[in-house]
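re: that chain from earlier
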Amino acid sequence: MTSINEQLTQQFSQALVKAFGDKFNEIDPQVWPARDPKNGDYQVNIALSLAKQLGQPPRAIAQTIIDNLPLNNMIETPTIGGPGFINIKIQATYLETQLKTWQNDLRLGVEKSAKIQKIIVDFSSPNIAKEMHVGHLRSTIIGDSIARILEFLGHQVLRLNHVGDWGTQFGMLIAYLREVYPDALTTANVLNIGDLVTFYKQAKQRFDEDEIFKETARNEVVKLQAGNQESRHAWQLLCEQSRREFQLIYDRLDIQLTERGESFYNQFLEDVIKQLKEKKILEENQGAQCVFLEGFINKDGDPLPLIVQKSDGGYNYATTDLAALNYRIQTDEAERIIYVTDAGQANHFAQVFQVGKKAGILTEKVEIIHVPFGLVKGEDGKKLKTRSGEIIKLKDLLDEAVSYARQDLENRLELEERKESQTFIAHVSEIVGISAVKYADLSQNRISDYIFSYDKMLALQGNTAPYMLYAYARVQSISREGNIDFEKLGENAQIILKDETEIDLAKYLLQLTDVIKEVERTLLPNRLCDYLYELSKKFNRFYENCPVLKSEEPVKTSRLLLSDLTARTIKLGLSLLGISILERM
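^ sequence. v structure.
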């Protein structure tokens, strides 16, 4: 089903052409949801911007547009407000008909995108031999939600996990383990991730302080890169240990990813240098191979180069990212590539993308986007850390959220004198805790930093996951209380909208398509969160003002249908955010 906004845009575009000629065929009529519901449901602003071009007063232009609108049963006769705004009110009968079509529509009226693309979403990207920490939280959650929405709209999405599994740190770690724990380099599962992280820190300290050890570590890197069998086996064991730990987190967060780490592109790095040389954009600077970029200067005002090959012949992140970009375009045939990383990497990607264009790797046929996000901060306004100053492990953060959720649930059960099984308590606590963490992140504009607070994210009031879950569960309680099977309400059952809160809820339900398409365009999941929060509030107002089970037929069935459609919309919206629902809380 085409959204209301899209239908109105089409109708007013036709009216513009009919009124003023074909030269207005490409003009956007500027249809927006009305800011003040007293003026109607939608507002068309084009008359004001055409006044100078047409040499007519905006109100006269607005009236001409209205006079040329195609006949339809969707809207009431538009009115003109202020200097020339066209105010539109949707007819209740249209709302009733449209919502009725949702009854057997699993997609709730949301059509797939007209142009299906091959899209890569690059997100999460932890480092081997390190535990996932709070810094990986936003990339993982935001990237997953973006991928879910794009998949729902029909795009072919490749979810890539560009893990840090190559480089000097492995030579350093292998060299150290040869000394202190050689079994870890030959036998699987002898180390847990905590031990591996500890050894990594000790190896790094040795590397920084001991020149002989540093040389040994560098030799290990050379052996690894040369394909030495013993070194490769040791490297694979270290990677597998980390992967198992990563997967525990991904399973808990319900995240699907295809791993393609930095090591995958190692075989293509020389080709990148060759391609840059062929394009004559490579320059030697202090022994390193560089590309000088437009718009980038250092603190002294001198041009800032992007180094793609170090003076010792080694490569770096930029080289790998260029190789990855080339592979994703040439082999994966991606038409849109989305990188979900913290805002601090914005300059790096701007430089890589510029070099990609100069080298002919990146063409106009491919849309490439860096999706930046801000920091997660503690309630003191500083970067979120443990009391001892360590970065918080993601596993510990999730455990703590579930613990908070369990304590809150047990307190409520005690107050309500309600008995529930330990299985129920454990399940609800896990869903609420994990959902609260996800929703707290996604409900923020991703570009901003946000304050991490268990108390706020687990509150039953406000724009939180528990509030959304409770709104869904409330509808299910109506089903249980009235012994209603929503799937068997009948094909002939009608939706009847009389009460103001019913009409308000119906209008908002029909904005779902617009919101999902806006997230597709802007890659801002918080817009979907805002929609779900407002929808839940409108449902609660409807529920308070309109008796459901106590109403007489056919109003009772109508209100049951409206309740079910609301619950299904909440469930769909939350699923696109990666959040599971609960039938009971």
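The first strand starts at residue 31 and ends at 33.
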